[in-house]
Amino acid sequence: MRRKATAGALALLLAAPAGAAADDDWRFQVTPYLWGAGSKAEIRPRAGGPTFESDMSFGDIFDRLDGAFFLTASARYKRFVVSGDLTWVSLSDDGSITGVLPVPVSVKGDLTQTSQTLTAGYSVAAQPKGALDIVGGLRAWQIDASASAEARIAPSYALGASTSRGLSWVDPIVGVRGRYEFAPDWSVIGYADVGGYDGRTTWQAFATLNYRISDAFYVSAGYRHMALDYDDGDTRLDLELGGPIIGATLRF
């Protein structure tokens, strides 16, 4: 079946349908999804000082979650494909420290993390029941963190301090994506990429099981893992995110 569209689209990788005709002109997909990720992080200052380590389950993250948004999309023209993925998470936590001063010290921290991936590629193998794509592109990261502490010495007097830092950069990546329809209405997708530049390494991999409800609507479930190794000469950051994903795809 031929479909024509006048607008470009960003592309969902999560639940790409199986069985599309090889001679379609344009095919578009959009998939909002949920990612129940846990995280492991380690920050090591190069100039000395304490190393920060964090190991949080999805439940720990959910308790601190202020907001999150995940979206992936794709546009295909015959064997050519353009795809994009956006993840955005905002976390905050607060508490108090006792024993350092005669009065409790209130502390609060905020963290916002955004990753954006854009790739273009070509299907080196395309059959009615499956395809294999080779892709290349860019992944942009934005990480903003802030922390504050306050000790109320008297009802009208308080001592406080705050700090914040933002990091942003873009890395080149290369990847591979495969899709296979193993039964009517059922397919599997696997994807992996790796990249980095100037002391940084990033990679991700995911796999999903997809079910076709109609020609225009699919649902999927699977697992996704993303990792980052960042070194700017002053600070070393190791970050891993991993957990189940579920998504719903609209195809047009």
CATH fold naming of the domain at 26-89 and 115-139 and 170-251 = Lipocalin
Q: Structural class, please?
A: mainly beta
Number of DSSP strands?
12
**Overall CATH architecture of the domain at 26-89 and 115-139 and 170-251:** Beta Barrel
| Low-confidence runs | 1-23
Averaging pLDDT over every residue, what do you get?
Answer: 82
CATH hierarchy class name of the domain at 26-89 and 115-139 and 170-251: Mainly Beta
In DSSP terms (H or I, runs of 4 or more residues), the helix count works out at 1
How would the global form be characterised? elongated
In percent terms, what proportion of residues is strand?
A: over 45%
Q: Secondary-structure element order, as H and E?
A: EEEHEEEEEEEEE
The radius of gyration computed from the alpha-carbon positions, rounded to a whole number of angstroms, is 22 Å
CATH-defined superfamily of the domain at 26-89 and 115-139 and 170-251: OMPT-like
**Helicity level:** under 10%
First-last Cα distance: 11 Å
